[in-house]
Write a structure and sequence with these properties.
alpha+beta; 5 helices; three-stranded antiparallel β-sheet; Arc Repressor Mutant, subunit A; single chain; 3 strands
């Protein structure tokens, strides 16, 4: 059994979205995980910092949280007498991130369904929403 909340909706609370894990949902950590997913195996700390627009201290702290949750690996290497920090998603991190994206898709689907149900005939959907 997994140690994070279920992503299956509870019939009594279908909009609780328990699969929105706090450790992933925080804006900076979501950016870090998205960057790591998009860039393959290992990503340099400096590149991750640039992609997420974070300071060294912020990035270090968020990586620590993600490491403690088992979502990322961080490796330090020395090359040309300089230290380099590399980061990547763990297998568990990738799996949980994909599950998290599934919950986000469900949220968008629920919002679209609600909007379509409540829409006045002939009224356009909000910008960015289109029937799937």
């Amino acid at each position: 059994m997994s140690d994070h909340p279920a992503t299956t909706p509870d019939a009594a609370a279908p909009f609780a979205y328990e699969g929105l894990e706090r450790v992933i949902h925080e804006k900076a950590r979501l950016g870090i995980l998205s960057s790591l997913v998009a860039h393959g195996e290992w990503l340099a700390f400096s590149e991750l910092k640039r992609l997420c627009a974070l300071t060294d201290g912020n990035l270090n702290r968020h990586l620590q949280v993600l490491q403690e949750a088992g979502l990322v690996d961080v490796r330090k290497e020395v090359a040309n007498k300089r230290s380099h920090t590399l980061c990547r998603l763990t297998i568990e991190g990738r799996r949980r991130f994909v599950e998290y994206l599934g919950v986000l898709e469900r949220i968008v689907g629920d919002a679209l369904h609600s909007r379509l149900r409540d829409a006045i005939p002939g009224r356009a959907l909000g910008q960015g929403f289109s029937p799937a």
